[in-house]
Amino acid sequence: MASGEILYKCFKCGALIPYGRLKVSPDLKCPECGCKILTKIRPSVVKKIKAI
What we know:
The chain is mainly beta. Helix content is 8%, strand content 19%.
């Protein structure tokens, strides 16, 4: 998988699904189990912004 690729995780079966695979189908659901509850995986990089 590419480093900048957006991943989603199925709430029911825990499968990791890339966004490219989700946008092909007309309805957003897990291709493995059919669950419609998906969570977006946050990147491990922490962004620090200096306050003024």
